[in-house]
Amino acid sequence: MRLQFCNNSTEITFISKLWKVFRAIISGALDKMKTLLGDAVTLVQETIDAHIKCFFVQSLQLDPKTLRLEVL
What we know:
By secondary structure, this protein is mostly helical. Helices cover 88% and strands 0% of the residues. The chain has four helices and no strands. Helix 1 (2-32) runs antiparallel to helix 3 (40-59).
């Protein structure tokens, strides 16, 4: 169990670092489209960030459903 936890932790750390690279690439692409999309660029970026945050919360099992199950 400890080995599995360590492996999961390592993977999440790697994913977190990789996300920073992907976010920079996505931000750069959206910046170039700002003249075409206008303020929608900010909305797109915020939506992507919200989905990624949700992914990390679920992958770390910090969502309310999982936390309730741990208490039981």
